[in-house]
Write a structure and sequence with these properties.
Radius of gyration: 24 Å
Number of strands: 11
Number of helices: 10
CATH topology of the largest domain: D-Maltodextrin-Binding Protein, domain 2
Largest sheet: 9 strands, mixed
CATH architecture of the largest domain: 3-Layer(aba) Sandwich
Order of helices and strands: HHHEEHEHEEEHEEHEHEEHH
Oligomer: single chain
Shape: globular
Helix content: 40-55%
Number of domains: 2
């Protein structure tokens, strides 16, 4: 019978197509992965991979084993979440994933408050735009911007926080210069987009320059503060920044909602329940700011 610890190495190589990539993802060295694969092949008396110039490719036997390996993975995760769900102590590790903007521009003071209230809970914050796989226990709670609730996985438990609105912003200095008739070039600031955004054709102030592209949200905010041009931001970012102002003639637009997501037995643990209740109350208090109701264009 195959050992699950060997099988998970097999799955990593099958999915990545590379021993090196699998080793990096598992946090082990190259030799460990090769040894585990060799152990699995010896135990099952078959060769599971062919090594080719392009990487590792499953053999016919490997293809058959893959289906059973994935079933073992699902069973392993189900066992972990069931055991985790029985843990009702307000201590231990709590992993939370949320987009960088939510972490740095809105919720970090609240995360700090929760950590102070519950010093026995070890907080692990993953500030990323990537969607963590809650089913595979990559995180215990995910706070996410959700545009279409119908696209949420059916196996996740979701608690809607508040509607999220976005507006178009520019620096107060750039707006003052535009009103004074200055000939400053006003560029649309975008994150990795190639075209000119739709909002560039709305409102009283129209960007005249070619797009200014930035790699992430933090650079986006820094660029608009420097007066490079205009950009779309969540209202909780733009309205809270004293250096920025809404572009006149463009109303905020609802972009979806902030959801708090958990999975299966995980949501029944005390530390997860405490956190979800705490954050949902804080998000409710932020509803005017997040919904774009707390400010207006100058």
């Amino acid at each position: 019978m195959a050992d699950w610890d060997d099988v998970r190495y097999f799955l990593a190589v099958a999915r990545d197509g590379s021993v090196r990539a699998a080793a990096e993802g598992l946090g082990v060295n190259h030799a460990t992965v090769l040894r585990r694969i060799a152990q699995l092949e010896q135990r099952l008396s078959v060769q599971v991979f062919e090594k080719r110039p392009s990487g590792y490719r499953l053999t016919a036997a490997g293809e058959e084993i893959l289906e059973f390996a994935e079933q073992m993975e699902v069973s392993s995760h189900q066992l972990e979440t069931r055991v985790f769900g029985r843990d009702q102590s307000a201590r231990g590790l709590l992993r939370v994933t949320l987009p960088p903007f939510l972490a740095t521009q809105l919720l970090m003071p609240d995360l700090a408050d929760f950590a102070r209230l519950h010093p026995d809970i070890e907080m692990e914050i993953h500030s990323t735009g990537e969607v963590a796989n809650l089913t595979n226990r990559e995180a215990d709670v995910a706070i996410r911007f959700v545009v279409d609730r119908e696209r949420l996985p059916a196996n996740l438990h979701g608690l809607v926080g508040t509607e999220l609105s976005g507006g178009v912003y520019l620096s107060r200095g750039l707006l003052a210069a535009w009103r004074a008739g200055a000939s400053n070039v006003i560029r649309p600031i975008v994150i990795n987009d190639r075209g000119v955004p739709d909002w560039a054709h709305e409102g009283e102030v129209r960007p005249t320059g070619i797009p200014f592209r930035v790699p992430d949200a933090e650079a986006q905010v820094a660029a608009v503060r420097e007066g490079i041009g205009m950009t779309r931001l969540p209202c909780f970012v733009g309205d809270a920044d004293p250096q920025l102002v809404r572009a006149p003639g463009i109303k905020p637009r609802v972009n979806g909602a902030i959801w708090i997501l958990t999975h299966g037995e995980t949501r029944k643990t005390k530390r997860v329940r405490l956190f979800v209740d705490f954050v949902s109350r804080r998000l409710a208090a932020y509803a005017p700011l997040v919904g774009g109701l707390s400010a207006s264009a100058d």
